Structure to design on (98 residues):
């Protein structure tokens, strides 16, 4: 029998828009997840996990006439359109071995 998987974590840390109960994807791209921690876990748990949801996930189609970056800035940002820019947080340095 295959195992049954449940989503036990909560996604919080995203402010809601004032006119509806959905987060603004262009403003709040980094999300926080607090996974379920079992009392039987053999390893120390990772209590908080973060991830980035890119803004292109929420753009159903590309409307005509979007503002564009100048070519030099577009190459530095990795996209031609400011609405699709996502400033990913820098990677953390690896932990030192103990």
């Amino acid at each position: 029998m295959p195992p049954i998987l449940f989503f036990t974590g909560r996604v919080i840390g995203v402010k809601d828009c004032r006119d509806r109960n959905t987060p603004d994807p262009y403003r709040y791209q980094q999300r926080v997840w607090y996974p379920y921690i079992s009392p039987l876990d053999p390893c120390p748990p990772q209590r908080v996990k973060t991830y980035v949801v890119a803004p292109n996930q929420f753009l159903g189609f590309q409307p005509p006439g979007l503002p564009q970056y100048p070519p030099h800035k577009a190459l530095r940002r990795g996209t031609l359109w400011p609405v699709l820019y996502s400033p990913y947080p820098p990677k953390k340095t690896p932990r030192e071995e103990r």
About this structure: The longest helix spans residues 71-77. Residues 1-19 have pLDDT under 50 and may be disordered. Strands lie at 10-12, 30-34, 49-52. DSSP finds one helix and three strands in the chain.
